[in-house]
Amino acid sequence: MKDNKVILSIKNASYQYGDAEEGEYALRDVSYDFKQGKVYAIRGRSGTGKTTLLSLISGLERCTEGEIIFNGKNLRDINLDYYRSHDIGIVFQSYNLLPFMTASENIILSMDASGIKGKNKREKAITLMKSVGLKESYADRKVLRLSGGEQQRVAIARSLSYNPKMIVADEPTGNLDKQTEEEIMAIFRELAHKQNKCVIIVTHSQNVCDMVDKVYELKKVKKGK
What is this structure's pTM? Predict the structure, then answer.
């Protein structure tokens, strides 16, 4: 039985550049809840703070006001290196794979960074690749020899290498055609609906928004507010 509990809670979060008196807000008073077993989209025009919010969720930046609670703990109070290497998987629009390594080597590198032990890492990497629709024969291909859609699948498999509770994806289909976009979204929906992960996607795509469980719309912060 699924446990659709709230795993991430953003409470009145703001992010301000510069000092408190003169600095501009990139994000102001945002409050969202995210549950396990659900796929979310965060949508907004350029300059609304989508990338900033993603950085806050990922623990790469800290709120200047408000708080972010993951699994009952404030991000200010936990080891963020551990959080990023065990609890949250990050998928980038540009994939962020090492191009001269093979697909499986990229995934194994992520396992090593997370401290995963064992001698069967290659087999696990291949299993993860198969789970996102890649054949075993792709394991030894250099990333440079893969298409954009194939690279994104490897990036998703890499993010799953330490079995995180939450996946955060930054415009994961922005460079893909519509059919490949739908295939990637099918992977994300399966991760949420069948593996009970929380999936959060930052996107401009209406097609992506039509395929998620809930859409949060970010508005641009008004100056002087």
Answer: 0.92
C-alpha–C-alpha distance, residues 116 and 219, integer Å? 40
Residue whose pair of structure tokens reads 């690279």 in the numeric block: 151
Residue-range domains of the chain with CATH: 6-217 (3.40.50.300)
Q: How crowded is the C-beta side of 182, counted as CA atoms within 13 Å?
A: 4
Please tell me the number of Cα atoms within 13 Å of 191 on its side-chain side. Answer: 31
Measure the CA–CA gap between 148 and 151, rounded to whole angstroms.
5
Which residues 6+ apart lie within 8 Å of 21 measured at CB?
A: none
Closest CA to 202 of 40, 67, 87: 40
pLDDT in tens, the chain (225 residues): 466 899 999 999 999 987 656 678 899 999 999 999 999 999 988 889 998 999 999 999 999 999 999 999 999 999 999 999 999 999 988 889 999 999 999 999 999 999 988 889 999 999 999 999 999 999 999 999 999 999 999 999 999 999 999 999 999 998 889 999 999 999 999 999 999 999 999 998 899 999 999 999 998 887 654
- Phi-psi sector, 108: left (phi>0), alpha (psi -120 to 50), beta: alpha
